[in-house]
Amino acid sequence: MNPKISVITPTYNCESVINEAINSVLIQSYSNWELLLMDGASQDRTLEVIKEYSKDSRIKWRSEPDSGIYDAMNKGVEMAKGEWIYFLGSDDELCNKNVFSEVFKQLAEGDDNVELIRCRSMINGQVTDIQSINVPDIAYDILQHQSVIYHKSLMLKHPFEKEYKITADQIQFMRIVSKGINSLACDIALARYSTEGASSKEVDILYSRDKLKLMNEIFGDQLSKNQKYRALRRMALIQIKYDSLFRGLIWLFQAELIQKEWRNVLFCLKHRIYRTIGRPLDSV
To answer: Residue 196 — very low, low, confident or very high, per pLDDT cuts 50/70/90?
Structure first.
């Protein structure tokens, strides 16, 4: 068993980091791969760097304006020749030269009908848990797409929804697991994940607005009332503590509409005010 894996890497103005991502694929002991570099019309030297690698016929690239990272990913899926799809960020890198060999060795020993391979990733030197497909976990936004290898048929059935600029992978994964999925869990860390990318630093405002609607639409009664409340409240507290009071309160109002615990809104508002004026902020 030697299936081809298509590694898709969206790029845009990443001349200083793209070498490491490409080299981590090039050194793989597993040889049946292709690397698709989907560039969004970079203005720096990214294309010059990419072209230096194009002598390897397994490395292909395309450069044209796009509407964001998920548009580039969708284009990569359409271009892919592999049976399996893996998304590697331009500032990420595979953990070692044997990750694909180890994954496909375990796949060969498992079920023939696997559609999703769940692994680990590494963030700031810490190895994550194996990616969960438990519905409440996914509702709580516990997803590292660097930990997941998808069968191409899944990606064609569930393309990224491009209007969600930061969290389309999260929504896609919600849709995938909600229908039930035959997956393989591999105790392997696939990639070192950079915390400098957009998904680590920015907030998807549209997703913040639509979170409850999406949970109801996708999961329905797979989530209890309390699980929906916990998912929304978790995101609200993260927003209030670290990013936007306004967006956090929107999430919190949605959560408290479920439980009708309005005192929690006032509690979080008080703590954000304390933080703003420099008073100690207790754990929320």
So the answer is: low
Please write the tens of the pLDDT for every residue from 160-178.
Answer: 999 999 899 999 999 999 9
* pLDDT tens string 73-102: 999 999 999 999 999 999 999 999 999 999
pLDDT at 233: 77
Q: What angle do CA 60, 65, 66 make, to 5 degrees?
A: 90
- Domains for the chain: give ranges and CATH numbers: 5-199 (3.90.550.10), 224-276 (no CATH)
Q: In angstroms, rounded to a whole number, what is the distance separating the alpha carbons of residues 47 and 44?
A: 8
Q: Whole-number mean pLDDT of the chain? A: 86
Is-contact 98 31, C-beta < 8 A? no
Query: Would you tell me the crossing angle of helices 225-242 and 205-219 to the nearest 10 degrees?
Result: 170
Phi, psi of 254 (to 5 degrees): -60, -40
The CA-based angle 246-247-251, given to 5 degrees, is 120
Residue 59 · residue 34 · CB < 8 Å = yes
Range in 24-33, 107-116, 234-243 with the lowest mean pLDDT: 234-243
